[in-house]
């Protein structure tokens, strides 16, 4: 399975999709998200929590 396939939300009629964080964050534990022309960093903390910063 490719990373793009792994990050595809599971189909759940009437409910938000679910994507495993590991599929998004990969081995580096971080992801850059571009939203409306601005970049955000999603990363996992040492305590296993997620933090989103701009």
UniProtKB/TrEMBL annotation:
Pfam family, one: hemP
InterPro entries registered for this protein in UniProt: Hemin_uptake_protein_HemP
Protein name: Hemin uptake protein HemP
Protein species of origin: Billgrantia tianxiuensis
